[in-house]
Amino acid sequence: MIGKKPITEYEKQENDLLIDLRDRTVFAFGTLPEAENIPMDEIGKLYSLPRDKRIVLFCQQGDLSREIAELLDDNGYQVLDLTGGYREWIVRRFI
Asked: Most CB within 10 Å of its CB: which of 15, 16, 29, 69?
């Protein structure tokens, strides 16, 4: 089952792997603290992530992370989808 949480309410847990799905150029301009980047052109890397960790996904607006969360959930991963995406996080952080 896929967990969902607004990105503005997320607090990283010890067992989380926080994954930014945006491309490397956008990632370089900013991301959430402790996030790793696995862009769509490297999506196969997601399937090598450890299954004993909770995979926490976000993208720019939340649409892509929702789709990828479904794929990982179908393959036995524990997944949390951060809704609203990085755009929502940055807006709330600086306004």
From this structure: 69
Tokens of 22: 């945006």
Strand locations in 1-95, DSSP E?
3-6, 16-20, 36-37, 54-58, 78-83
Token representation of residue 90? 């940055």
**Tokens in use for 13?**
């847990």
CA–CA separation, 8 and 75 (whole Å): 27
Residue 67 neighbours by CB distance under 10 Å: 12
> Taking the model in full, what pTM does it have?
0.94
Q: pLDDT tens digit string along 30-72?
A: 999 999 999 988 999 999 999 999 999 999 998 999 999 999 9
In angstroms, how far is CA 27 from the centroid of its own chain?
A: 12
